[in-house]
Amino acid sequence: MAERASSYDFDGLMACARGELFGPGNPQLPAPPMLMMDRITAIEPDGGAHGKGKIVAEFDVKPDAWFFKCHFLGDPVMPGCLGLDALWQLTGFFLGWKGLQGRGRALGVGEVKFSGMVTPAVKLIRYTVDFRRIIDRKLKLGIANGVMEADGETIYTSADMRVGLFTDEAAA
């Protein structure tokens, strides 16, 4: 596994998407256009409200983004599921960064609240994932809360997000 950095630029995220960062069969980020971040700005192994870890990423919103062209024609807005997916993406990335092995899969979320939206006028999205628990036994599981901000205003919150890691044998 590559050295654990405390931040990653777009090239680092793409190395993860290609399976180069954590090795074959381990967590990978999706490639664009499903990659919903441009950089990871901070990773704290013992950070967050619960001391279990925290990861922060940013996404530069482009007014001509693919999702604005097809979601609510004439009323462009980023689908809420893409913001939630970004939080899951970061949850899986953090598990790989911690050295846990297996392919990441979103397993659910306890609660999601939307209090705003991303329109083409938004410039910057910031995602924060705060881990509540990490299980590293036969079951590899991250349980976390997430926040998504648009230009500094909290617009999505999620509680009890779950991402598991599975080996090819366990997935069969």
UniProtKB/TrEMBL annotation:
Q: Which GO terms describe its cellular component?
A: cytoplasm
Provide the protein's localization.
Cytoplasm
Q: Which reaction does it catalyse?
A: a (3R)-hydroxyacyl-[ACP] = a (2E)-enoyl-[ACP] + H2O; (3R)-hydroxydecanoyl-[ACP] = (2E)-decenoyl-[ACP] + H2O; (2E)-decenoyl-[ACP] = (3Z)-decenoyl-[ACP]
Biological pathway: Lipid metabolism; fatty acid biosynthesis
What keywords tag this UniProt record? Cytoplasm, Fatty acid biosynthesis, Fatty acid metabolism, Isomerase, Lipid biosynthesis, Lipid metabolism, Lyase
Which residues are the active-site ones? H71
What Enzyme Commission number(s) apply to this enzyme?
Answer: 4.2.1.59, 5.3.3.14
Q: Recorded GO terms, molecular function?
A: (3R)-hydroxyacyl-[acyl-carrier-protein] dehydratase activity; trans-2-decenoyl-acyl-carrier-protein isomerase activity
Record Pfam families:
FabA (PF07977)
Q: Name one GO biological process term.
A: unsaturated fatty acid biosynthetic process
Q: Identify the Gene3D superfamilies for this entry.
A: Hotdog Thioesterase
The record's CDD domains line, in alphabetical order, gives: FabA
Q: What does this protein do?
A: Necessary for the introduction of cis unsaturation into fatty acids. Catalyzes the dehydration of (3R)-3-hydroxydecanoyl-ACP to E-(2)-decenoyl-ACP and then its isomerization to Z-(3)-decenoyl-ACP. Can catalyze the dehydratase reaction for beta-hydroxyacyl-ACPs with saturated chain lengths up to 16:0, being most active on intermediate chain length.
Subunit details: Homodimer.
Query: To which protein family does this belong?
Result: Belongs to the thioester dehydratase family. FabA subfamily.
* Name the record gives this protein: 3-hydroxydecanoyl-[acyl-carrier-protein] dehydratase
Q: Which organism is it from?
A: Pikeienuella piscinae
